[in-house]
């Protein structure tokens, strides 16, 4: 049964250093990544159902058909997700606890079935699994491995063994398996060059009030033997052992972090959930930090999320450093050394191994943010070995930044903006380059290289002057979003008719790019030139006016929260969590604590039922919209809480 992956499905994530799985609120597993958290994804379809003796077919309790209702939440202070399903049409309730065992190549799906009725019940637990490993429908084999009582899904170097400590009573591989699983009767076919198969367990006469447990393990390996070995490891202990082991691991992880400040339970819960989520989004082996679990592989409405952006990661690692999880940050900055281009630049986004991911072209703020983040990390850890290790990359990166300046404006030359939509000389990007060069100068000063420190400090100062002289829009009372905005020819002609400033550029092949002199749109990213990059202080009158215009123009009228920019159309133009918290950061720096706490509360109020922070909130309903979780959202929450606590304003 091939399915087309759709967005909007993620409600929870579970994982460890090698596994990542996304789950819906019904407990259904939609995606599974191994051995890295970004690529490749393997699951086509996994379903869990019950066939009650004497009925016409299987009822799938990980969906809402047949009246199934669900309660779902994380096991407190862990990355273990529990779902309870009940239906008035079924005498059994089904509880599922999903978790990846730390350090192991297997996931546990711990099922408990309870007889809620008044008579004994005989039933079959049906487990259907279709693996489209490497995200392709071709060249799969599914086989029942009798020696290990497992269903094995094989493709290339990705082998998954599905089994239980309970011996199965039926199996089927290949053709017609979904239809037979629906009917509750598997035909015993042992092998097929198809991606799907099913197992079942027959439970006889479960008494009223009694419960039975069936743990299902998904074990992975790059060979048959490795997959079987992982499965044997899973079966070597009772599932309760793995449950306790995993629960203790996550509790210890939180104990290693700075505790949540203040006494509010809602802040503490989201603070801890943010740390847990950021840990899952960090590839422990490579050090890369993923923006979000992928949920739109078909690129139906976006360009994908399961990549590492240097910009996002600079904010994320700064948050990790603030809470004492500096090892994750250090690992990320080791990773950045593998992702830097020979010319000193860092491109838009990368896979976990540093290879270039699909891209819209250079975003100059990405590399600048990495250098800025490196300095923030050094300030936190004061590790001289780290300073020496990253210095060659910092030097190459700073030289690239200073060579990417437009002689006419004194700003960084045109590149894509942080929202990956426009080509221009962006004010935010200029602020990030200022921050990167200032950080590079600090590195040089610390290493006893005063000439480089002076060169880069002067370059940063010239950018500050250019922003102040060229990027202020007195008519609107806010900074311009950009200069030299590339537009279609029709928009260029219309601007000429209106008497607006325009220009053209012709490249070496004779192709023309049309520019508007100014982009006057109010954008939340304009906050960035003050917080965090410090081009101007928060109390600079122009920053004060810009922030007020942001709040005036970008507050979503129906549900509150801050949109990215005027007339934003992406996914309907919703308010975002991170943008709202960005304004919160600025208000804290201005000492406007009441306003800041209102913005923080909006973010808290719009977490998902499972306690995660999405990217967006629907502008009409206030419900979660688009990707869940967005790692940058969680980082901005952590930073907001830390800032308020520093000022004694959290409670």
Account of the 3D structure:
- Pfam families: Glyco_hydro_15.
- This is Glycoside hydrolase family 15.
- Residues 268-585 form the GH15-like domain.
- The protein has 651 residues and is of the alpha+beta class.
- The protein has two domains: 12-253, Beta-galactosidase, Chain A, domain 5; 265-481 and 520-647, Glycosyltransferase, CATH 1.50.10.
- Helices cover 34% and strands 23% of the residues.
- The protein has 15 helices and 28 strands.
- The strands form seven sheets. The protein has a nine-stranded antiparallel beta sheet with strand order 6-7-8-9-17-13-12-11-15.
- A hairpin with a 2-residue loop joins strand 12 and strand 13 (158-164).
- Helix 4 packs across helix 15 (631-646) and helix 13 (577-589) packs antiparallel against helix 14 (593-605).
- The longest helix has 21 residues, at 450-470.
Topology of helices and strands:
Blueprint: E1 12-15, E2 20-23, E3 29-33, E4 43-52, E5 59-60, E6 69-74, E7 81-86, E8 92-100, E9 106-115, E10 121-131, E11 141-145, E12 150-155, E13 158-164, E14 170-173, H1 177-183, E15 191-192, E16 196-206, E17 211-221, H2 224-235, H3 239-255, H4 265-280, E18 308-309, H5 310-322, H6 326-339, E19 349-350, H7 364-381, H8 384-402, E20 415-416, E21 423-426, H9 427-446, H10 450-470, E22 472-473, E23 478-479, E24 482-487, H11 489-497, E25 502-506, E26 512-519, H12 541-554, H13 577-589, H14 593-605, E27 616-617, E28 624-625, H15 631-646
Antiparallel strand pairs: 1-2, 2-3, 4-5, 4-10, 6-7, 7-8, 8-9, 9-17, 10-16, 11-12, 11-15, 12-13, 13-17, 14-16, 18-19, 20-21, 21-24, 22-23, 24-26, 25-26, 27-28
């Amino acid at each position: 049964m091939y399915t087309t992956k759709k967005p909007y499905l993620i409600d929870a994530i579970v994982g460890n250093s090698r596994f990542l799985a996304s789950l819906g609120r019904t407990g259904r597993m939609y995606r599974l990544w191994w051995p890295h958290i970004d690529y490749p994804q393997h699951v086509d379809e996994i379903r869990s159902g019950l066939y009650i003796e004497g009925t016409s077919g299987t009822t799938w309790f990980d969906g809402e058909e047949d009246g199934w209702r669900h309660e779902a939440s994380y096991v407190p202070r862990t990355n273990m997700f529990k779902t309870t399903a009940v239906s008035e049409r079924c005498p059994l309730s089904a509880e599922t606890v999903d978790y990846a065992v730390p350090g192991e190549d297997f996931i546990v799906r711990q099922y408990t079935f309870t007889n809620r009725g008044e008579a004994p019940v005989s039933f079959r637990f049906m487990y259907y699994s279709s693996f489209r490993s490497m995200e392709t429908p071709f060249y799969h084999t599914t086989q029942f491995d009798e020696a290990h009582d497992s269903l094995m899904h094989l493709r290339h170097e990705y082998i998954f063994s599905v089994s239980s400590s309970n011996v199965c009573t039926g199996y089927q591989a290949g053709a017609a398996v979904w239809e037979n699983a629906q009917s509750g009767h598997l035909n015993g076919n042992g092998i097929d060059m198809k991606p799907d198969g099913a197992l079942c367990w027959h439970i006889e006469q479960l008494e009223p009030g009694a419960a039975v447990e069936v743990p299902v393990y998904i074990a992975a390996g790059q060979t048959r033997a490795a997959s079987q070995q992982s499965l044997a490891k899973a079966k070597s202990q009772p599932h309760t052992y793995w449950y306790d082991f995993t629960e203790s691991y996550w509790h210890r992880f939180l104990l290693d972090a700075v505790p949540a400040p203040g006494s509010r339970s809602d802040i503490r819960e989201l603070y801890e959930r943010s740390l847990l989520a950021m840990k899952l989004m960090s590839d422990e082996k490579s050090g890369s930090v993923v923006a979000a679990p992928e949920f739109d592989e078909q690129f139906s409405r976006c360009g994908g999320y399961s990549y590492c952006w240097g910009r996002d990661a600079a904010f994320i690692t700064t948050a990790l450093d603030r809470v004492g999880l500096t090892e994750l940050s250090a690992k990320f900055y080791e990773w950045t050394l593998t992702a830097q281009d020979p010319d000193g630049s860092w491109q838009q986004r990368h896979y976990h191994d540093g290879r270039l991911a699909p891209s819209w072209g250079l975003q100059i703020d990405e590399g600048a943010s990495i250098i800025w983040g490196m300095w923030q990390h050094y300030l936190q850890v004061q590790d001289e070995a780290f300073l020496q290790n990253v210095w060659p990359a910092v030097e190459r990166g700073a030289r690239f930044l200073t060579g990417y300046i437009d002689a006419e404006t004194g700003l960084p030359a045109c590149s894509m903006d942080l929202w990956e939509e426009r080509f221009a000389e962006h004010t935010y990007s200029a602020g990030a380059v200022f921050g990167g060069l200032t950080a590079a100068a600090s590195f040089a000063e610390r290493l006893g290289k005063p000439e480089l420190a002076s060169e880069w400090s002067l370059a940063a100062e010239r950018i500050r002057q250019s922003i102040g002289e060229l990027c202020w829009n007195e008519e609107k009372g806010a900074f311009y979003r950009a200069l030299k905005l590339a537009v279609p020819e029709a928009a260029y002609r219309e601007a000429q008719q209106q008497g607006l400033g325009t220009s053209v550029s012709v490249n070496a092949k004779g192709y023309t790019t049309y520019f508007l002199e100014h982009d006057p749109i109010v954008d939340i990213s304009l906050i960035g030139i003050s917080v965090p990059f410090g081009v101007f202080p928060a109390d600079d009158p122009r920053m004060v006016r810009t922030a007020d215009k942001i709040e005036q123009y970008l507050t979503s009228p129906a549900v509150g929260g801050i949109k990215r920019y005027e007339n934003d159309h992406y996914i309907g133009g919703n308010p975002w969590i991170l943008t709202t918290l960005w304004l919160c950061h600025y208000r804290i720096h201005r000492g406007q604590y009441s306003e800041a706490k209102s913005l923080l509360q909006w973010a808290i109020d719009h977490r998902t039922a499972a306690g995660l922070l999405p990217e967006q909130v629907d502008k009409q309903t206030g419900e979660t919209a688009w990707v869940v979780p967005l790692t940058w959202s969680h980082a901005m929450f952590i930073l907001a809480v830390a800032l308020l606590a520093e000022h004694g304003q959290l409670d």
